[in-house]
Amino acid sequence: MTERTLAIIKPDAVARHLAGAIIQRVEADGFAIRAMRRVELSQAQAEGFYAVHRERPFFASLTRFMASGPAIVMVLEAPDAIRKWRSAMGATDPARADAGTIRKQFAESIERNATHGSDAPDTAAFEIGYFFAGCELVP
Ligand code: CMP
Fold first, then answer.
1. What is d(CA 23, CA 6) in angstroms, rounded to the nearest whole number?
2. Distance between CA atoms of 108 and 100, rounded to whole angstroms?
3. 54 lines ligand 1 (CB under 6 A)
4. 115 lines ligand 1 (CB under 6 A)
5. Mean pLDDT confidence for 77-99
6. Measuring CA to CA, which of 31, 87, 98, 136 is 20 to 30 A from 5?
7. Residue 62: CB within 6 Å of ligand 1?
8. Which of the following is catalytic: 89, 90, 116, 131?
9. What is the rounded CA–CA span in Å between residue 86 and residue 39?
10. Ligand 1 geometric centre to CA of 110 (Å)
């Protein structure tokens, strides 16, 4: 079933000029880019996006990092897009990521891990709606 997921090229990867390589990987893996935008998140916007993690010890550091510079947000579409994009990214911690994954290749640390992907259909719906209006996603 065709599905959509929210992907982010995080500030660490944008700062190191890796956006092109990551977008190339997105296309090579067969995702359609349905929407894409460069964003500079405020601290409050980063906190809103990651609100589900607000009790975690890494929340303050994570949100400061996400507000530290430009990022690129995308809506990716493919059959089984959520699972497929998470599999392309690899484990959250690049030290645990499989060879050939985006995080193995590009991530600096568990926090500065190059990309984000929604983890389930309900979070994908929230995350896509956080950045894109429905009228931007009409087929
Ligand atoms: P992401 O897939 O965007 O989801 C939550 C983010 O929190 C994660 O990628 C990492 O950037 C960050 N994160 C998760 N676990 C840790 C951790 N143990 N320490 C620091 N940052 C983390």
1. 13
2. 15
3. no
4. no
5. 98
6. 98
7. yes
8. 116
9. 22
10. 6
Angle subtended at Cα 15 by Cα 97 and Cα 75, rounded to the nearest 5 degrees:
65
pTM for this model (two decimals) = 0.98
Report the atom number in ligand 1 closest to the C-alpha of 8. 3
H or E segment and range at residue 32: strand 32-39
Q: Is 35 in the pocket of ligand 1 (CB under 6 A)?
A: no
H runs (alpha helix) in 1-139: 11-15, 19-28, 43-49, 59-66, 81-89, 102-106, 121-131
Q: Are the beta carbons of 5 and 81 closer than 8 angstroms?
A: yes
pLDDT digits (tens, 9 = 90+) for 11-56: 999 999 999 999 999 999 999 999 999 999 999 999 999 999 999 9
Active-site residue, 17 included: no
Q: How far is the CA of 135 from the centre of ligand 1 (A)?
A: 31
Say what the pLDDT of residue 34 is.
Answer: 97
The number of CA neighbours under 13 Å toward the Cβ of 42 is 3
Q: If you ran DSSP here, which 8-state letter would residue 25 be given?
A: H
